[in-house]
Design goal:
Layout lengths: L4 E4 L2 E5 L12 H4 L5 E6 L5 H12 L2 E7 L6 H8 L3 E5 L4 H15 L2 E2 L7 H12 L7 E6 L3 H9 L4 E6 L13 E4 L21 H11 L6 E5 L10
Parallel strand pairs: 2-10, 3-4, 3-6, 4-5, 7-8, 7-10, 8-9
Antiparallel strand pairs: 1-2
Length: 237
């Protein structure tokens, strides 16, 4: 499915929130090949929870998500559970501990452990293909970055553009984003972006890159912004 490209405030916006499950759902089906269960360690607010659960549900396979225990689970966990995912809450929930627990579980049950950010060669190939299908030649490309998978994919699609990756969580090394310019978002991952884009966007992720891009926009350049997914939907009470 070719991405939807819209114009908002003078920027080209790739509305991959309109792709069922978001950008990650474009390539997650590959992770389920040859296995009935995929395991992933996620930050509490991470959008990959929904994407993995969505694809697992569509394929009739199990998605198992390990996440830090909270007083009230984030809406992303509720979304995943509603789609049939197994959500395992981990005490002492530093991401490193959550990842260790997920790895141990996958080894015990013989499931496939998905890497952080779903960072696989297939992901790069599939996202780059989707971007290339737009037929655009941007001067500048912006996206949020956690693992750097998306940014490296967009660099493959548009190697002549200047790429800007907004690091929304960890201090991401330049090599993880293929040498793109890296800007660290100044507030913690669990905080929302300041303001909302004029389209559905994850406030922990894509909306932060939109915020910084608008603050630094320069006229006369074709700028593309990649929107991975929309906000989590709160469960009905």
């Amino acid at each position: 499915m070719k991405p939807v490209l819209e114009e908002h405030e003078g920027f080209g916006v790739v509305r991959d929130d309109l792709f069922p499950g978001g950008t990650k759902a474009r390539f997650i089906p590959r992770l389920f090949e040859g296995t009935d269960e995929v395991v992933y360690a996620s930050p509490a607010q991470g959008g990959a929870q929904y994407a993995l659960a969505f694809v697992g549900h569509a394929l009739g396979k199990r998605a198992t998500i390990f996440v830090a225990k909270r007083g009230r689970p984030h809406a992303r966990a509720f979304e995943a559970k509603a789609l049939g995912a197994k959500v395992v809450q981990v005490d002492f929930g530093m991401l490193s501990n959550v990842q260790a627990k997920a790895k141990a579980y996958a080894a015990t049950v013989g499931a496939r452990l998905a890497p952080f950010g779903m960072d696989t060669p297939e992901a790069i190939e599939i996202i780059a293909g989707a971007a290339g299908a737009l037929g655009e030649s941007p001067d500048e490309v912006w996206c949020s970055a956690g693992s750097g998978t998306l940014c490296r994919s967009l660099i493959r699609a548009w190697p002549r553009a200047h790429h800007v990756a907004v690091a929304v969580g960890r201090n991401i090394p330049a090599e993880d984003v293929g040498g793109a310019e890296v800007i660290r978002y100044p507030r913690p991952f669990e905080h929302h972006a300041l303001g909302e884009p004029p389209f559905p966007s994850d406030p922990h992720y894509d909306a932060k890159a939109w915020e910084l891009m608008r603050a630094r926009s320069r006229g006369g350049r074709r700028i593309i912004f990649w929107n991975v997914t929309g906000p989590a939907r709160e469960p009905r009470s």
